[in-house]
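Bumping my old thread because nobody answered last time. Still need a sequence for this structure:
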C-alpha cells in the first residue's frame, strides 16, 4: 500500500530508515522503502548501503546528480504502491505512530502534509543557531496554523500523495538547485483544486546548516524565483508580493543600493547570538531587488 521515498544527498539515513522499517513492520500493511542516492560522497554511500540489507528496502545510487526535482520524480516513477510518502533524508522520526498516522489519512485525490519540527533546545554549535531559530519561528507550525493557508504551507519534507496524482503533476525538473520546487508543486495543487489535509505528524529537521550555507541556499532559491518570474510563471510568494509593492512605490532600486552598501553588516548580524528575522527578511528583499534591478 505504501511506498516511502527518500532522496539522499550527503546524509546518513540509517537511523531514519531503521525507525521507518520498524514502524512499517508493526503496521502490518504492504510497504517498501526506496532510497535513491543523488551523488553523495563515497563516505555516505558506504554507510547508507547498509539499509539495502533490510527487508522491503531498496537502496540505489544514481550514476550522476539529478537535482532536487528530478530525483523525486524518479522515486515516484519507481514506486510500486498506490500511496507515496516523500521525506527529506535529514529527518528524524519523533512519533512512534508516524506511519500509522499517515495510513489513517490515506485517501484518493488528496495530499496529506505532516509538518516539520525542530529540536526544543538550540544547537551547541553557534554557527547552526540561525537555521534552528528560523525553523522554530517560521517553519514549525501546527496543523491548525498551516490549514489557514494550506497551499502556501506545503513543503516537500514530509507528505503523502496518491501515486497517480503525483505522476500527473511531478516536480519541475528545470529547477536543479535549491529552492521553490515545493512552491510550484503547491501552486499546481491549488490550480487543480486538489485538497491538502494538514495533520500534526511532523518529522524533525536535523540537518541544520551553518548560517553562511543557509544564506547561500537562500540566494539560490531567490535565483530560482527570478528565473520562474522571467519565464512568465505566476509564482505567488510573500517575498514577491512585498517586492511588487515596493516596485509600485518606486523603491526597489533604492532597496538594492542600500542593501549592497550594508550587506556585510546584515550578514554579521545574522551570524550573531541574537539574530532578528526582520533583518533576514530585508536580506531576502535586498537580494531579490539586486537580481531584478541588475539583469
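Sorry it took so long. Here it is:
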Amino acid at each position: 500500500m505504501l511506498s516511502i521515498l527518500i532522496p539522499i544527498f550527503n546524509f546518513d539515513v540509517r537511523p531514519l530508515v531503521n525507525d521507518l522499517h520498524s514502524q512499517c513492520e508493526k503496521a502490518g500493511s504492504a510497504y517498501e522503502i526506496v532510497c535513491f542516492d543523488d551523488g553523495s560522497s563515497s563516505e555516505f554511500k558506504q554507510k547508507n548501503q547498509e539499509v539495502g540489507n533490510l527487508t522491503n528496502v531498496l537502496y540505489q545510487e544514481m550514476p550522476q546528480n539529478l537535482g532536487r526535482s528530478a530525483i523525486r520524480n524518479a522515486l515516484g516513477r519507481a514506486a510500486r504502491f498506490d500511496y507515496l510518502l516523500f521525506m527529506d533524508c535529514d529527518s528524524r522520526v519523533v512519533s512512534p505512530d508516524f506511519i500509522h498516522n499517515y495510513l489513517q489519512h490515506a485517501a484518493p485525490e488528496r495530499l496529506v502534509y505532516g509538518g516539520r519540527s525542530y529540536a526544543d533546545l538550540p544547537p551547541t554549535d553557534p554557527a547552526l543557531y540561525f537555521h534552528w531559530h528560523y525553523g522554530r519561528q517560521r517553519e514549525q507550525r501546527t496543523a491548525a496554523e498551516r490549514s489557514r493557508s494550506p497551499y502556501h504551507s506545503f513543503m516537500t519534507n514530509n507528505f503523502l500523495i496518491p501515486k497517480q496524482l503525483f505522476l500527473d503533476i511531478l516536480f519541475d525538473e528545470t529547477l536543479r538547485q535549491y529552492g521553490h520546487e515545493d512552491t510550484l508543486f503547491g501552486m499546481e495543487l491549488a490550480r487543480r483544486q486538489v485538497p491538502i489535509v494538514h495533520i500534526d505528524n511532523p518529522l524533525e529537521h536535523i540537518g541544520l546548516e551553518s548560517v553562511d550555507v543557509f544564506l547561500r541556499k537562500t540566494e539560490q532559491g531567490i535565483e530560482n524565483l527570478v528565473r520562474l518570474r522571467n519565464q512568465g510563471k505566476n509564482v505567488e510568494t510573500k517575498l514577491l508580493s512585498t517586492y511588487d509593492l515596493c516596485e509600485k512605490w518606486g523603491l526597489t532600486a533604492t532597496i538594492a543600493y542600500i542593501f549592497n552598501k550594508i550587506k556585510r553588516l546584515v550578514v554579521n548580524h545574522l551570524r550573531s547570538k541574537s539574530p532578528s528575522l526582520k533583518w533576514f527578511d530585508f536580506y531576502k528583499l535586498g537580494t531579490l531587488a539586486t537580481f531584478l534591478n541588475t539583469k
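Residues 211-294 form one domain. Let me know if any region looks off to you.
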